[in-house]
Design a protein that fits this description.
Blueprint (H helix, E strand, L loop, with lengths): L12 H15 L5 E7 L7 H11 L10 E7 L4 E6 L1 H7 L3 H15 L3 H19 L16 E2 L2
Helix pairs in contact: 1-5, 4-5
Length: 152
């Protein structure tokens, strides 16, 4: 008989809570939506391809303003990608929109500060979203859950 092994969680509860609070804080200043998806391994050769796949699976293109972003992280493979809906590219200047958030994430990951890196990245994305898609109290609704999505 094989021993039973409990699968280790991908993030500690405190880290998960910090990231989810960052999502809520970031979204409080914008009409944009941010989701975080974490899994151990990237099923694609390129993390951006996996991020696009997850974005579609989560139905993130269905937000009213088409301004949702996914932060994708494959922990064991040490890969990440940021991907957003088409309106972000049309209105926010393309690749420059992501640069500061991606640089922040890469720096923290090199320091083995995964949760802090994700959290800081989310806050950077929220600041960038707020510039192009400011908070509107007359239409604001949380269209997507703020909880982290965990893959297998």
């Amino acid at each position: 008989m094989l021993p039973f092994f409990k699968k280790k969680p991908l993030l500690k509860a405190a880290d998960q809570q910090m990231i989810e609070q960052s999502i809520q804080q970031a979204e409080s200043k914008t009409s944009g939506e941010i989701r975080v998806y974490v899994e151990p391994h990237c099923a694609q050769a390129d993390a951006i391809d996996r991020a696009k796949e997850i974005f579609a699976q989560l139905g993130m293109e269905k937000t009213q303003a088409r301004n949702a972003i996914i932060v994708y992280v494959a922990i064991t493979d040490r890969k990440f990608a940021l991907f957003g809906d088409k309106v972000i590219y049309e209105n926010a200047g393309g690749a420059q929109f992501w640069k500061k958030a991606a640089d922040t994430m890469a720096t923290k990951l090199k320091q083995n500060k995964l949760a802090e890196g994700i959290s800081d990245c989310v806050l950077e994305l929220g600041a960038a979203l707020a510039q192009h898609f400011p908070y509107d109290p007359t239409t604001k609704k949380n269209e997507l859950p703020d909880e982290i999505v965990f893959g297998k």
